[in-house]
Design brief:
Blueprint (H helix, E strand, L loop, with lengths): L2 E6 L2 E6 H13 L25 H10 L3 H15 L4 H11 L6 H17 L3 H9 L8 H14 L3 H11 L7 H8 L4 H8 L6 H13 L3 H14 L4 H4 L3 H7 L8 E6 L6 H15 L8 E6 L5 H6 L6 E3 L4 H7 L8 E3 L11 E4 L3 H14 L5 E6 L2 H18 L5 E4 L2 H11 L2 H14 L16 E5 L2 H14 L9 E3 L10 H6 L4 E4 L10 H10 L5 H15 L4 H6 L5 E3 L2 E5 L4 E5 L1 E6 L2 E5 L3
Parallel strand pairs: 3-4, 3-5, 5-6, 6-7, 7-15, 8-9, 8-10, 10-11, 11-12
Antiparallel strand pairs: 1-2, 12-16, 13-14, 14-15, 16-17
Helix pairs in contact: 1-4, 2-3, 3-4, 3-5, 4-5, 5-6, 5-7, 7-8, 8-9, 10-11, 11-12, 15-25, 18-19, 20-22
Length: 605
């Protein structure tokens, strides 16, 4: 048995190699299942063909070491090596050695091993606490930066992670490859705010902003990149552009000469088809230069197979609107770009894109926004309408994925069930029962106020305007005068331009999401004035379809670049538009709030 001796003041510590072996063998039988090790930065002078040394070999070398310092380093090497396969053994070794580590470099190394293991065991806060409590030697900075960057990524702090990889690139140039994908996750607003700050990341941020501002015009983006390269001649992205950015530079947007538009222009959905057509033409006629030929087909009169035979000269297709028609037409025009006005479950084809005013997007956005603002315990009030139930289901699914639990909800189909449901959801009915029980015990007059449950911090309504107008006062009357006000949120289905002053008064402080087109202070005032003059009594649902038609035309030149750069956003009447990996367009809506009998636009996203 070999013993390691340390003298620190008057303290003598003896560490047995056998006890170390016993400790780590015990760890094999207990503790959580091991997880993959945090990747370490590459070291330039390490041969590519070097064979890793087993932890047991380090222990054997420690027995044969010539001095105590070397022995401790070898034991730390063993803890490091075991981290690759079993962090539990590493932690046992660190715990055994802790009091014997007197050198700052050894203490820092042990702390890093422990923090990395805690991070791998989903104990990020404990790992952060360890790192904050210790000063690390310069030689440990690459490893420290790697760990902190991984932790930032896991916590979805993309900008912080990018900054840490930028610092790490001074030790390991491969870290530069991590920065661009992280910046792609940031919104345009986040990029613009970050670019105002000084720091080494500024060049990367300016490059990301170029892609957001100019990606739809390859020539203009090339000019901007040339200026950027002149300003940052030694930047790593100057030598090799990110692959997606290089591809965007080589790609021209759609410039069709003959566009076919497939809509139901007669029959049951004629009003919907006409509204989309009118919105599309509102975007088409102001177009400068030579306009493409545009040809409309009535999908209510002609089958898809017959329409397909008439598309030989067409180089872009907008529509159809119905899923069945999309599924029937798509394989017949697999060689033509198409912007379908609905989503489809059928197999996708190259350059077939799908655009719908999907309720699911609204539900997910509401859940995402409440989570970002720190709400923990929302409750849902849901109409029996199928579209609103789909929206609520999307909210609940997204919430469950993030919080591992479903939010409480109530579904109503009448005024009576609405009242009963809200009282049950807020547990007001239980409070009223307790009040009645007390009143029955005392024949005299009893003064009492009901109390609502105290854990609820948000109420989300999935209801139409008429139902919402009834729900908000019910909610207000259900909140105890002793309780804090609970904010109420709603989808676009809760708002209507037809609401009068009295209705808006009843809905005061209601926050909701809707198309920018449906809210004040949008950028299409001229189009709105023309639309109101031509169709003064148009329903809200048709106003939204008008906006859909407008955006469908405006998106055509952007689609290819949206596919290459998923972070690219197009600001449209129907929302901020983005394309996913399935070539499906998703919308992020704007926020509005009712205050003093009018709607104001909010900046909440």
């Amino acid at each position: 048995m070999i013993e390691l001796q340390w003298i620190n003041g008057m303290t003598l510590t003896r560490i047995s190699i056998v006890s170390i072996l016993s400790t780590v063998l015990l760890a094999c039988a207990t503790g959580p299942k091991p997880v993959p090790r945090v990747e370490q930065p590459k070291v330039d002078d390490t041969p590519a063909t070097a064979t890793p040394i087993a932890p047991q070999d380090y222990l054997q070398q420690a027995k044969q070491a010539n001095n105590e310092s070397e022995k401790l380093e070898l034991l730390l090497d063993a803890a490091d090596a075991w981290q690759q396969t079993d962090c539990n053994k590493s932690l046992r070794i660190i715990e055994t050695l802790r009091d014997s580590l007197t050198l700052a470099t050894q203490q820092g190394r042990a702390t890093l091993i422990e923090a990395e293991c805690l991070y791998q065991h989903d104990m990020g806060q404990q790992a952060i606490g360890l790192l904050l409590a210790h000063d690390f030697d310069l030689s440990l900075q690459p490893r420290l930066l790697t760990l902190r960057a991984h932790m930032a990524e896991q916590e979805n702090r993309a900008l912080d992670a990018a900054r840490l990889y930028q610092q790490l690139s001074h030790y390991d140039v491969a870290a530069n490859q991590k920065i661009w994908p992280l910046l792609k996750q940031l919104s345009l607003k986040q990029l613009e705010q970050a670019a105002l700050q000084r720091g080494e990341l500024k060049a990367w941020l300016q490059l990301a902003l170029i892609t957001r501002h100019f990606a739809n015009d390859a020539l203009l983006m090339a000019s901007q990149l040339q200026q950027w390269r002149a300003q940052y001649p030694n930047h790593p992205a100057n030598l090799t552009l990110p692959e997606d950015l290089d591809q965007a530079l080589q790609t021209q947007g759609f410039k069709p000469q003959h566009v076919a538009v497939l809509l139901p222009l007669s029959g049951r959905l004629q009003a919907q088809g006409e509204a989309i057509k009118q919105g599309l033409l509102a975007a088409y006629f102001p177009q400068s230069g030579q306009r493409p030929v545009i040809q409309f087909f009535d999908t209510n009169r002609l089958p898809m197979a017959e329409i397909a035979t008439q598309l030989n000269e067409v180089d872009f297709v907008i529509g159809p609107l119905l899923k069945d028609n999309i599924d029937a037409l798509a394989p017949l025009i697999a060689d033509k770009p198409m912007l379908a006005l609905n989503r489809s479950d059928a197999a996708n084809h190259d350059e077939h894109y799908f655009y719908a005013l999907a309720p699911e997007d609204e539900g997910q956005q509401l859940a995402r926004s409440l989570l970002e603002r720190g709400f923990q315990h929302p409750v849902l009030a849901i109409s029996s309408s199928p579209a609103l139930q789909r929206m609520a289901a999307s909210f609940s699914l997204h919430w469950q994925l993030q919080k591992d639990k479903l939010p409480p909800q109530v579904i109503f189909d009448s005024n009576k069930t609405m009242q009963q449901g809200m009282e049950s959801l807020l547990e007001v009915d239980q409070s009223n029962q307790r009040i009645k029980a007390i009143q029955s015990m005392f024949p005299g007059e009893v003064h009492a106020f009901h109390r609502n449950r105290q854990d609820v911090d948000a109420i989300v309504l999935f209801a139409n305007p008429e139902e919402t107008e009834l729900l908000v006062p019910i909610i207000e009357s259900s909140i105890s005068p002793f309780s804090a006000i609970i904010p109420v949120f709603a989808s676009s289905r809760s708002f209507s331009h037809d609401l009068k002053a009295n209705s808006l008064r009843d809905l005061h402080d209601l926050s909701f999401i809707d198309m920018p087109w449906m809210l004040p202070q949008h950028g299409w005032v001229g189009v709105e004035q023309q639309s109101e003059a031509l169709w003064p009594n148009r329903q809200d649902s048709l106003k939204r379809l008008f906006a859909m038609g407008y955006d469908s035309w405006q998106m055509i030149p952007h689609l290819r670049h949206m596919a290459i750069l998923p972070e690219l956003r197009v600001k449209g009447m129907t929302g901020e538009l983005a394309l996913d990996e399935n070539q499906t367009i998703h919308r992020t809506l704007s926020w509005g709030k009712i205050q003093q009998e009018k709607v104001i636009k909010l900046a909440m996203e």
